[in-house]
Amino acid sequence: MASKPPLPLEAPFTIGVLIPVYNNVSTVAGVVEGCLKHLSAAMVVDDGSTDGSGNEAAHYPVILVSHPRNLGKGSAIRTGLEQASRLNWTHVVVLDADGQHDPEDLPNFLCLAREHPKAMIVGYRDFDDPCTPARSRIGRDVSAFWMRRQTGVDLHDCQCGFRVYPIAETLAVGTKWRRYEFEVESLVKGLWAGVALMETPIRTHYGEATETSSFRPFWDNARFSWFNFIYTIRVLLPRFRARPLMVRRKTEPPRLGTASERRSASKVTPPSDRAVAAGMGAFFRFVAFPGSFRRLVDFFSRRLHLSRQLLEWGGGVSSIPQVLLPGAAILGFGLLLFLLMNDLRLPRISTPLSLMFNLASFVVYGLIGAGCAGIVTGLFVGSNAYRAARKEAHDSR
Questions:
Q1: Domain check: are 329 and 248 in the same one?
Q2: pLDDT tens digits for 347-370?
Q3: What pTM was estimated for this model as a whole?
Q4: Mean predicted confidence (pLDDT) in 228-243
Q5: How many angstroms separate the CA atoms of 149 and 303, rounded?
Q6: Is 47 helix (H, G, I), strand (E, B) or coil?
Q7: Residue 393 and residue 111: Cα distance in Å, rounded?
Q8: How many CB atoms lie within 10 A of CB 378?
Q9: Distance CA 242, CA 226 (A)
Q10: Distance between CA 252 and CA 211 in Å, rounded?
Q11: 78 within some domain
């Protein structure tokens, strides 16, 4: 497999604004005007709009690139990155055309980009704002959970579209997803490749004028679920290795502190992480055979960035190490469910085929029982952690 070409040596810092647009005719003009107050270099990528959004943007001194049909937000951003690279831009700052992002936050992004030219800079929304839709909070929490599993980094808001991309690094990581998943994929692959990451707060406007988002809850959430499934399985593959980019630079940029490092320092573990770690620990204890439990704990704690202590606690290592013997509980679950499914009678075994069938049923029932035990353990730990977190947040107000 051919290796990716090395990135070029340092180039002069040149940044422009990139606005992907799809059927935002009522808001795109205001967004473009706001951006041109802070940056003279602006590009609009019309992703197959049918309402004249591209024509509206063409009234301003911007570079207009059009797709003949709708290809997705990720494709629009990638088209803009490739076009910007041909124009010798080194960075683009991307914001949505629906008016939710405030162009007055651009100076902050520009300042950070100049100070840290090799970093991706991601904005994060204020989720304490009562105007923030509940679906945005849920989407933020779900995406953050999977980001932690895939990279070990805990971002405030990995779905925010207001961000700065260093063009050479972003194109080099090799993104493949075409729609909203691109925004998460670029972060995941960037972190795997060693690209530094920063966050900065932004202002967000919600209202009737900004309710023109092309996000389709069912299909786009289904694609996000498939994306997270594939990338989580990928980090579990034995041959998975995060490979830094082949970058030729005069000096290496400083590695920026990540949100996960900040949380690690404060010893705060999200309730969802505690639930998954404890539940998986309980499941492993029920199915692990002698000598394999600690290997499973070590593997999954490293690959999924879960707390080793919670995995072992869920497996009863620290509290009841002699009650749940390795591999013994699955036999009990299997036998119990096996008997219940056969009216408390042992089946007659007359042929080798029937023996194999009953043994397979026995194992499946045992795995089901172990899975139920893991789910119950995870729900118990997660609910307690969630209540404790809410109480702490309430007391701190």
A1: no
A2: 666 677 766 766 677 677 777 777
A3: 0.80
A4: 85
A5: 8
A6: strand
A7: 33
A8: 22
A9: 21
A10: 43
A11: yes
